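Progress note, sequence design subtask.
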């Protein structure tokens, strides 16, 4: 059974940084695509970033490009989201997601419905 556990959220001032972690367990993730999504109060869940575990190909939402970096650690079976230059509009619950394939387009992996497994999320609050 795949389990995803996020950590690293918190309260930070605008311009600050946070690093989120997603610890993955239950199987080998070498064939998986891992994504980060966020949901602010009253808004729909939106794509943030994703990484294809094998090869490390990454892609981002335009709103975070150049500020956020997604990466993975083979040994720790963990996916990270380094968030720099945070803005108040980045405030949301951030969730990690996984799907057991890597061969579709970026557009496919930007849709939350295409992921099979989800963590419970971690709150990120950016104060102005």
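Output:
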């Amino acid at each position: 059974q795949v389990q995803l556990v996020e950590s690293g959220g918190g309260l930070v001032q605008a311009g600050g940084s946070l690093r989120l972690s997603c610890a993955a367990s239950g199987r080998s993730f070498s064939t998986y695509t891992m994504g980060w999504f966020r949901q602010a109060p009253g808004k729909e869940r939106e794509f943030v970033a994703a990484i294809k575990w094998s090869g490390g190909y990454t892609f981002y939402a335009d709103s975070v490009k150049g500020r956020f970096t997604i990466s993975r650690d083979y040994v720790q079976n963990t996916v990270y989201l380094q968030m720099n230059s945070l803005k108040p509009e980045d405030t949301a619950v951030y969730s990690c997601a996984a799907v057991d394939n890597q061969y579709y387009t970026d557009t496919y992996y930007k849709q939350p419905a295409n992921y099979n497994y989800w963590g419970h999320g971690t709150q990120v609050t950016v104060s102005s």
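The CA atoms of residues 83 and 127 lie 15 Å apart. Work on this subtask will continue into the next period as scheduled.
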